[in-house]
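FIELD: query
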Amino acid sequence: MANQTKFVLSSLEVAYQYGGRERVFWFDGNGKITAENGSFERPSANAFSLLHKTDCPHKTPICESVCYVNRLEDAEPEMYRMYRRNSAAIHQVLSCGYETAITILAFVEWIASRCKRGGFRWHVSGDIFSMEYAWFIRAVVIRTPDVRHWIYTRSFHFSETLHGLRNIAVNLSADRDNFNEAMTCHNQFGFRICFMATEGDVIPDLPKGSVIFPSHELRGRDLEQPTDAPWWKSLSLKQKHMVCPPDFFGQSEALRCGPCKKCLLFGYAKAE
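FIELD: result
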């Protein structure tokens, strides 16, 4: 049985001299995504998150029904309150060019000073909700060249903004509802496909470098031998190599984003 994932929060206060306003942003982290910034037992904040569904303009019926944040909202209410505050703050900031510029610089300083070793994840919850926000992310990534960033997104038409940046891994969150659109984006930009498999799915032929995320009912983490799970036995050898180890087998010091790196590598292969 895997250990329970631990969560952590860290605040950033940003002052805007013009107008005398101040906003607080919250960075979150957990044992799975901490990478080398911390450990499974002692995670460090290394992510910026928003509201799920509300800030996911291209959610699909499948992802909306099985989203892991549905559980997180109930299990970690304080964490989710910070996501709500982040959402309100970043939407307000993006409506003012001056505040956008100041906030970019504040994010850059915070991330550069804390996330060089393990990296920074955009959105444990939420997604790229506008082109203005996509450019905000791009500006932060460009100004933190020594930090490895990674992101999962269903906002495929906004992801073009992140193309060509050497220090962010763009992962296209796909399922059977949006797989064709994800493949179109992959073929154009080479971004990695991350396919969420649910009960009854026939997993499509995924390009090299893809990752498979099984939904909760398919995972083997609660079994004495996870590989006895019927879903696992149904996979081809190629597909088994693509499965996210922490999601399927359970999270621990050895089974988390840092040691795994399936989604963190920058080199993807376009479909032939």
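FIELD: remark
Residues 7-260 form one domain.
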